[in-house]
Design a protein that fits this description.
D-Maltodextrin-Binding Protein, domain 2; about 425 residues; 2 domains; disordered N terminus; 7-stranded mixed β-sheet; two-stranded antiparallel ribbon; 9 strands
Length: about 425
């Protein structure tokens, strides 16, 4: 998965879509053998053989359908896709790089509505990410997310109970304060002070980064201020300061691995960093304030609206996102995580070893803080928000002044 933090399975047959809103009818199947094309970036590199296994199994189960695969490096995928779509020559099925790209494709009428999806097969939060007005226009194929890591030994030494799925910000703060011992270099918490963490904290506090029409910022509220303070006020109290090195590359994971950090907000992709640490650790779903909401990064798959073989293309999209073969290949090879809901089929992953609570990875994906669609000036907006938060963290501005400054810079960028 191409994550932008430093930058989100079953039967191949067709079932009836059961969701909110009007369900599309299953497309009419072709009468004879067909060949469909599938353009992807997810298998680029070491995973080409893994994708080949899935294609071979699909073609064996569907002998009248042949899948021609075109793999494009991630770095060039967006440009290649835009070119094909503009020319009307896009593949029958293609990968979708996360929710923001899905929204753009769907809004531009590039995606066919899918009518043969059994919604019960998928993790509901991930499936909903690729819905518009209750209708399914794409499917999630793989994901990763951000969870709360915690050092059990530090919790035990301080006599503090471990995090649970019912924890709130107040619980996390209380635990962090009890465990923090600056004289010994032990800190209770760490969470990056960035745009990515802020939009998530806003959702966790019942607020939003953007207005409903997406044309201006919406964080200038009491809930928005509280969310910013949740991040900024940790610095120097329960979290190291910028002067201590906070915010530099790998500072947080190194501090946790050294046994000097009780809680760490970061992604599931760093499990391997802590495989040999000399202390006990585990994970939990990140606490929210008014509600739970996690940052989830997923890849999706969609059917081209102009495909001449919608039924065959849909069968492949479903298979590639939910078949038993796809699940097994992913789990056996460590090729990201499948997006199914059946925990029995995920048993090999759930019992793999530390962390013990691997179920939290899937639980976190049921309530997603969807990243806002920021348009053409996305990177500039993210940078402006992060810079403003850091000004507050460094004490050069109050949190309110930082938010006011960010709003003044970001609203014109949203307007184009």
């Amino acid at each position: 998965m191409n994550r932008k933090l430093v930058g989100a399975l079953a039967v191949a047959g067709v079932a009836v879509l059961v969701m909110t809103g009007c369900a599309a009818s299953a497309p009419k199947a072709d009468s004879g053998p067909v060949t469909i094309t599938y353009t992807n970036f997810i298998s680029d590199g070491a995973n080409v053989p893994n994708l080949t296994k899935i294609v071979t199994a699909f073609e064996k189960a569907n002998p009248k359908i042949t899948v021609n695969v075109k793999t494009i490096p991630y770095s060039g995928y967006a440009t290649a896709q835009q070119t094909d779509l503009a020319a009307g020559t896009a593949s029958d099925v293609f990968d979708i790089d996360g929710h923001s790209n899905y929204e753009s494709l769907q809004a531009n009428g590039q995606l066919a509505e899918l009518g043969g999806v059994d919604s019960k097969v998928y993790n509901s939060g991930l499936l909903d990410t690729y819905q518009t007005a209750g209708k399914q226009y794409a499917l999630p194929t793989s994901f990763s997310d951000v969870v709360l890591y915690y050092n059990k030994d530090l919790f035990d030494a301080a006599g503090v109970s471990y995090p649970t799925s019912s924890w709130t910000w107040a619980d996390e703060t209380a635990a962090a304060k009890k465990i923090t011992d600056q004289a010994k270099g032990i800190w209770g918490d760490h969470q990056p002070v960035t745009y990515n963490e802020y939009y998530k904290a806003l959702v966790q506090n019942g607020a939003s980064f953007l207005s409903k029409d997406g044309k201006k910022t919406a964080f200038d509220t009491s809930a928005g201020l509280a969310a910013a303070k949740w991040l900024v006020d940790k610095s120097g109290t329960t979290m190291p300061t910028i002067a201590d090195g906070q915010g530099t590359a790998d500072f947080d994971t190194n501090l946790f691995a050294a046994g000097k950090l009780a809680m760490l907000h970061t992604g599931t992709w760093v499990f391997g960093n802590f495989a040999k640490v000399p202390f006990n650790w585990d994970i939990a779903v990140e606490p929210g304030n008014t509600q739970s909401a996690s940052a989830v990064f997923s890849n999706g798959i969609g059917v081209y609206a102009k495909s001449k073989h919608i039924a065959a293309a849909e069968k492949w999209a479903i298979y590639m996102s939910s078949s038993t073969e796809e699940v097994n290949v992913r789990l056996d090879s460590g090729w990201e995580l499948p997006t199914i809901s059946d925990s029995a089929k995920l048993a090999t992953y759930l019992s793999k070893g530390a962390p013990a609570n691997r179920q939290a990875v899937f639980d976190a994906a049921t309530k997603i803080a969807v990243s806002p669609s920021l348009g053409a000036n996305s990177q500039a907006i993210q940078d402006a928000m992060t810079a403003a938060l850091i000004e507050a963290q460094a004490g050069r501005e109050t949190v309110q002044q930082a938010l006011d400054s960010a709003k003044a810079k970001i609203d014109p960028l949203l307007a184009g």
